[in-house]
Each structure stands twice: as structure tokens, then as C-alpha cells.
Amino acid sequence: xxxxxxxxxxxxxxxxxxxxxxxxxxxxxxxxxxxxxxxxxxxxxxxxxxxxxxxxxxxxxxxxxxxxxxxxxxxxxxxxxxxxxxxxxxxxxxxxxxxxxxxxxxxxxxxxxxxxxxxxxxxxxxxxxxxxxxxxxxxxxxxxxxxxxxxxxxxxxxxxxxxxxxxxxxxxxxxxxxxxxxxxxxxxxxxxxxxxxxxxxxxxxxxxxxxxxxxxxxxxxxxxxxxxxxxxxxxxxxxxxxxxxxxxxxxxxxxxxxxxxxxxxxxxxxxxxxxxxxxxxxxxxxxxxxxxxxxxxxxxxxxxxxxxxxxxxxxxxxxxxxxxxxxxxxxxxxxxxxxxxxxxxxxxxxxxxxxxxxxxxxxxxxxxxxxxxxxxxxxxxxxxxxxxxxxxxxxxxxxxxxxxxxxxxxxxxxxxxxxxxxxxxxxxxxxxxxxxxxxxxxxxxxxxxxxxxxxxxxxxxxxxxxxxxxxxxxxxxxxxxxxxxxxxxxxxxxxxxxxxxxxxxxxxxxxxxxxxxxxxxxxxxxx
Length: 527
Known about the structure:
Layout: H1 17-33, H2 38-45, H3 49-77, H4 79-98, H5 103-131, H6 135-167, H7 170-190, H8 203-226, H9 231-253, H10 267-297, H11 302-329, H12 333-350, H13 359-386, H14 393-433, H15 438-451, H16 462-498, H17 512-526
Helix pairs in contact: 1-5, 1-6, 1-7, 3-4, 3-5, 3-8, 3-14, 4-5, 4-7, 5-6, 5-14, 6-11, 6-13, 8-9, 8-14, 10-12, 10-13, 10-14, 10-16, 11-13, 12-13, 12-16, 14-15, 14-16
């Protein structure tokens, strides 16, 4: 029987936490900091709109496709070893990206960064599962983990703006180098090793999962620009679907799968994973478009937009550890349900404001963003780690994180398509009503169809610029209301899935079903 090697050697578990949070901050910072550098990258490397989109998407594609693999490798070869290997790859990708002389070399560098992030991120949670053996301490630790992740996302534009202004876009990647080196030193010194060495690596599952995720993510990214009926997009989705079915069948047949599908028979685990997907689909996608709204419609700088949402992220940092405490003391259903409810109210609230909004009017929406993130991220991660044996924590963490990353990719693509479609119809109607000449009207409509949200604030006739911005707001409001409704439904579903069994901690060599059965028997004995 496979047994984990000891993860603790008398040291304080809280000594390990900073060594995990520093690299975690890098992976989350990367998701937002680069947005401030895209115009400079486009000018310096002579890239087109599609090229620049893949500067961001290259990271997302590799990150999502390899997340499950990263968790499985940690369980088999060592969580510390895989974590440090991922950080080393991330360091190499940073140097490679900083030295890039063309857009597609930079895209390749972003893919390398995504590979490194996929190897290290799921193992941060898995290591926490091993080091923090007390469930109460673990909930607090995961709360701190979630707070760091939220803060890194918020600080991305704040840090990126000055770096780009003073050191060029390359300065972002050179900034990663000393932080990654610090993370390696701390990781080597403060992170204990744990593994499940007798477990076989599911090579067939590994290859099929990477291929399926890559095809699905690629199709989703390209669908927003090429159109959902494009033959390449449809073909990629078909290939991804076939590969996904083959992966699931393989996992039911092999003795030691890289993803134990029995996890999903536990409604707490399933409810947490579902909540993570929808949260990232809705709230994180809309956060991206809100940054566009602040910068292109309301005229904020990238740094100013980052500072505008900073109060919300600070609230997330405060509420995340509290949510962790609540999850381990009173159960995860309440903070999880409340957090997703607040996230839905964020989206409905944001849909009340348009082109003339002032910060003094929508400040409360910014705070709700932070409250929704802080109350939700911690119980999602804590419950997933509670409901699996420690020996398979990397597998569970990889599955949970991969699902969230898929949610963000699908959210930006699907809600972005809704936004662009509504924006195109709205700008056409506004220009027709204003009796703009047909040639000028068609030119603007084509620009909106091609650039979507990126076409806001374009130069030329101020009247046309105002109408494009107003049309963008129309599209944004539709996307926000759809996302808000989806989150509201998910809040109810997740609450009832998680409620009642959300304080049962799974021990090694037990399954969630075993623990649930034992808890029900104990409850029956008490009555």
C-alpha cells in the first residue's frame, strides 16, 4: 500500500507558508500585470491584435492544460520537488520572455511561464494539506493563501504601470527573476518533502488530459475572435470532446488513475469544484472587463484602475482568513453561499453604472468584489482539501485549480462574445439613429466587430467615440447580468450541495464515502 513520507519534522507549519505564498503571488500577478504592457509590446514587436491576444492566451493555455498533470506529478514524484521544478521553469520562462525579440517568441515564453505555474500552483495547496495537520490551522492557512492570491491579482496593474513606464515591458519579466530566486531559496529551506512513491504514473491519462484540455482551451480562446462556427474552432472542440471522453474512460479502467473520478460522488467536493468554475467564469471574467471600463470609458490609467479596485482586494485579504476559520469551525456552506451571492450582487450592481459614473457612486461594488472573492476562494480550496485523503491531495488540487482556470477562460470567451455581439448591435443602432453616413457607420461597426471591447475610446469624431463607449457599456451590462444570474443560481446549488457534510475531514486511506457513512452512523447513534 502506498504511504506518504513524513511531511513534518518538528518545525512550525507557519514557517512553510511564506515559501509557498511568494511563488503563488507570481502566478497570480502574471494574470493581470501584463495587461498594462500590451500597447507597448504591440508597438515594440510590431504585433497585430490577434498576436497580442495570444501573448495573454499562451500563458492561460499552458496553465490550464497542465494543471492536473502538475498535481499528479506532485503526488508521485514529490510535492516539494515538483513545486521547485515549476518555479525553476517559471524563472526560465521569465528570462526567455524578457529577451524575446518577436511577438511569437514572447508567446512561447508565456507558454513556458504557464508550464511552470501549472507545476507549482496545485502543489502549494497539496503541501498545505500535509504540513497543516490540524483542520483549524489548515483553514486559516488556506485563508492566507487565498488572500495572497487576491492581493497579487489586484496589485498587477499597480505594479505593472510604473515598471512599463520606467523600464519598458521587459521590466515586468525581469521583476519576476529575483522574486523567483527568493522563492527557490525559501522553498529549499522551509518546505518539507512528501510524496506517494509507490503510486504509478498514469501516462495514458496524462497524455489524454493534456491533449483534451489544450484542444478545448484553444477552441474557446479562438472562438471569441474567429467565431464559434469557424471550422477550426468546431474541429478543435470535437477533438477535445473525443479526447476528454477517452480520458474519462481511461480513468475508469486503470488501477491508479491520475484523476480519481470517485471524488465527484462526494457532493461536498463536487459543489466546491462547481462553485470554483462558476466564480471564475463570472466574477473573474467581469473583473477583466471592468478594468477595460475604468480605463477606456472612464479614462483611468492602468495604475489608477488598479488602485480603484485595491480597497476591494484589501477586503478580500481580510475576509479570506475569516472564511477559513468559519469553514473549519461552523462549516463551509455559509461562507461559500454568501460569497457567491455577494459575487452575483457585484455583477448586478456594476450593471447600474455607465459612461458617466463616478467612484463615489460605485465604490460599494468594488468592496463587494473583494467580499465575494474573499468569502468564496477559501472554502472552495479548504473543502476540496478536506474531502480527499492527503496522499491524493495533489490530484484533487490539480483538478480543482484546472476547473477554475477553465472557468476563467470560458468566462472571458463566452461573456466577451455576449458583450461584443450586444455592443455591435448597439453601436449600429446608435450610429443609424444619429444619421452617421453609411460609409463611416460601416467602418466603425467593422472595427467593433474585429476589436470588440478593445475598440472603445477610439479616436476621431468625439460623437462617434461617445457612441462606441456607450455601446460597450450596453454590452458590458448584458454580460454582467447574465453572469450575475448564473452566480445567483450557483450560490443556491453550492450551498445545498455542501451543507451538512462540510466539516468532515478525510483521513489517509479513507474515501469521502467512507467518512460520510461513518458520520451518518455516528449521528444515528447519538439520536
